[in-house]
Automatic annotation (TrEMBL), chain A:
It is an enzyme of class 7 (translocase). The chain crosses the membrane at residues 38-57, 69-89, 95-113, 125-146, 181-204. PANTHER family: ELECTRON TRANSPORT COMPLEX PROTEIN RNFE (PTHR30586), ION-TRANSLOCATING OXIDOREDUCTASE COMPLEX SUBUNIT E (PTHR30586:SF0). It is a multi-pass membrane protein. This is Ion-translocating oxidoreductase complex subunit E. The complex is composed of six subunits: RnfA, RnfB, RnfC, RnfD, RnfE and RnfG. It comes from beta proteobacterium KB13. Its EC number is 7.-.-.-. Belongs to the NqrDE/RnfAE family.
TrEMBL record, chain B:
Keywords: Cell inner membrane, Cell membrane, Electron transport, Flavoprotein, FMN, Membrane, Phosphoprotein, Translocase, Transmembrane, Transmembrane helix, Transport. This is Ion-translocating oxidoreductase complex subunit D. It is a multi-pass membrane protein. It comes from the Bacteria. It comes from beta proteobacterium KB13. The complex is composed of six subunits: RnfA, RnfB, RnfC, RnfD, RnfE and RnfG. The chain crosses the membrane at residues 12-31, 37-58, 199-218, 225-244, 250-269, 281-300. InterPro entries: NqrB/RnfD, RnfD_bac. The gene is nqr. The modification FMN phosphoryl threonine is found at residue 174. Its cofactor is FMN. The keyword Cell inner membrane applies. Its main location: membrane. Its EC number is 7.-.-.-. Signal peptide: none annotated.
Length: 208, 332
């Protein structure tokens, strides 16, 4: 059973590249790896928690009122994650801005709750939430890396927001940031990079 | 004897011929541009157009289209040409090639090739370069007047030793840019009244684009609707602003003669693929581009907004056409 979830989450049903769900944060925050990774991890937490809290109550939720109830649960969990990030790393919280609270409206969370957790038992739901989130996180990291390198000439920018000030040396300056291809750091660059990733995924699928 | 399909009168107006006439209309201004801004433009044209044709061939090959007829139609040639004359002459060649790549591969072939591209390819390339490399794109070489030696120096483009000298040339912002900056800083601008003796290099080039454009209208390659509506619209809207406050808003004549007003009016917005086909649509298209251009020039962050105005209005073309369909004869 778990194998299925790994395959679906990371490749076959990848949230960012195949289902194309949750694009708003995907495109908006991936200006560097740190942001992409942080938002990805936050999403993993929310998805795991929401899946395992919805799955046990799935038989008691009335069909007609399920969406408000699901959203209410997700919103509560997102608030927990939001406050935790604020407490753990204030600069990271400021960098991600509105997009942490916006995980509530992220279609991928509701989609997994609706499509998986409300039909399956708790343990598979936990796996599903984790691997779906992980698949999205990989996409966020790759997008962040590409946009950071091309647009700004850096790698692991702001990584010290995540793991402490003494790791600031991890930020690598590949070339002078004023020579960067600014488009990559701007919103259209996110769309172009995402479409390049989808192209790559489709190519690999076609070859098989 | 081979049978000929009707129409029996041979019409030589193929895509190929149209593109050739367009190039003819662009030539005089190019001559002036080289004289003012240097021989690099010739090198840019050589490498830029070469790269554009190469990319065109690669894309056609990948999409399983016949290469020869599509290369020879000259559309990639004109696209590259329009992009090259819009960018500063001293642009580093790799920057230019990125612009060409976005024009040909992304704006044209990714959308389905000639005839299917919703956006003007040259303007997409220009917009990509402008937002990606603002420093390079706003520094034009300073011109000390028309110099014949710029043509002779062409050979230097290929010699390695002169590359540094060429790129360290003295640069400045375009007049439109300079005035925008000083207005932004709250300075009073006094511009000489425009007369023949005070024409700047940019204004002379603009006038040649105007004349080249008239040649296209005369040759019936383009109709007068698009250019006239854009020019009038820029004139009227900037004129209204100028009447409102003469110290903050430049005169309408200044707006016509600076920036890409004439180039856009005759050569860019008349792109048959990305502009409306209905008559009313053309006029609406031109007027709105003029309005957006005046707004961006006076209130926006970039000195000249024509490229953005064209791209924005390109997306609106299907909508414009939907509402301006002429009535079919016989219908209520």
């Amino acid at each position: 059973m778990i194998k299925e979830q790994i395959k679906d989450g990371l490749w076959k049903q990848n949230a960012g590249l195949v289902q194309l769900l949750g694009l708003c944060p995907t495109l908006a925050v991936t200006v560097n790896i740190t942001n992409g990774f942080a938002l990805g991890v936050a999403t993993i937490f929310v998805m795991m928690l929401s899946n395992i809290s919805i799955s046990p109550i799935r038989n008691y939720v009335p069909e007609s009122a399920r969406v408000p109830i699901f959203i209410l649960v997700i919103a509560g969990l997102v608030t927990i994650v939001d406050l935790s990030i604020n407490a753990l790393s204030k600069p990271l919280y400021d960098a991600l801005g509105i997009f942490i609270p916006l995980i509530v409206t992220n279609c991928i969370v509701l989609a997994r709750v609706e499509a998986f957790a409300s039909k399956n038992t708790t343990l598979p739901s936990l796996y599903d939430g984790f691997f779906m989130g992980l698949g999205l996180t990989f996409v966020l990291i790759i997008l962040g890396a590409v946009r950071e390198i091309v647009g700004n000439g850096t790698l692991f920018q702001n990584v010290h927001f995540l793991i402490g000030d003494k790791y600031e040396f991890l930020t690598i300056q590949l070339f002078d940031s004023s020579d960067g291809f600014l488009l990559a750091a701007l919103p259209p660059g996110a769309f172009i990079a995402l479409s390049a990733l989808i192209l790559f995924l489709n190519l690999v699928n076609q070859k098989r | 004897m081979a049978m000929i399909d009707s129409p029996a009168i041979k019409e030589r107006s193929t895509v190929n011929m149209i593109m050739f006439t367009v190039i003819l209309g662009l030539l005089p201004a190019l001559f002036l541009q080289i004289g003012f801004f240097g021989y690099q433009i010739l090198g840019n044209l050589f490498f830029g157009i070469g790269f554009a044709l190469f990319l065109e061939a690669v894309c056609l090959k990948l999409r399983n289209y016949p290469i020869r007829p599509f290369i020879l139609d000259g559309s990639a040639f004109v696209t590259a040409w329009l992009l090259i004359i819009s960018v500063p002459a001293n642009i580093p060649i790799w920057t230019l090639l990125i612009g060409i790549f976005f024009s040909i591969v992304v704006a044209k072939h990714a959308y389905g090739g000639i005839g299917s591209n919703p956006f003007n390819p040259a303007m997409i390339g220009y917009a990509v370069l402008l937002i990606s490399f603002p420093k390079i794109m706003t520094n034009w070489p300073i011109s000390d007047g028309f110099e014949i030696r710029n043509f002779i120096q062409f050979s230097q483009f290929f010699s390695i030793s002169n590359i540094n000298e060429a790129y360290d040339a003295i640069v400045s912002a375009t007049p439109l840019d300079q005035i925008k900056t000083s207005l932004f800083l709250g300075k009073e601008v006094d511009v000489l009244p425009i007369s023949f003796s005070t024409l700047s290099s940019y204004q002379m080039i603009a006038i040649l684009y105007f004349l080249g454009g008239l040649f296209l209208v005369y040759k019936k390659v383009i109709t007068w609707h698009l250019p006239l509506s854009l020019i009038l619209s820029v004139y009227i809207f900037s004129g209204l602003l100028h009447l409102y406050d003469q110290n903050t808003y430049m005169s309408p004549t200044f707006h016509l003669l600076n920036g890409a007003t004439f180039l856009a009016a005759f050569f860019i917005i008349t792109d048959p693929v990305s502009s409306p086909t209905t008559l009313k649509g053309k006029i609406i298209f031109g007027i709105l581009i003029g309005l957006i251009t005046v707004i961006i020039r006076n209130y926006g962050g970039y000195p000249d907004g024509i490229a953005f105005a064209v791209i924005f209005m390109n997306i609106c073309v299907p909508l414009i056409e939907k509402f301006t369909q002429p009535k079919v004869f016989g219908y209520e």
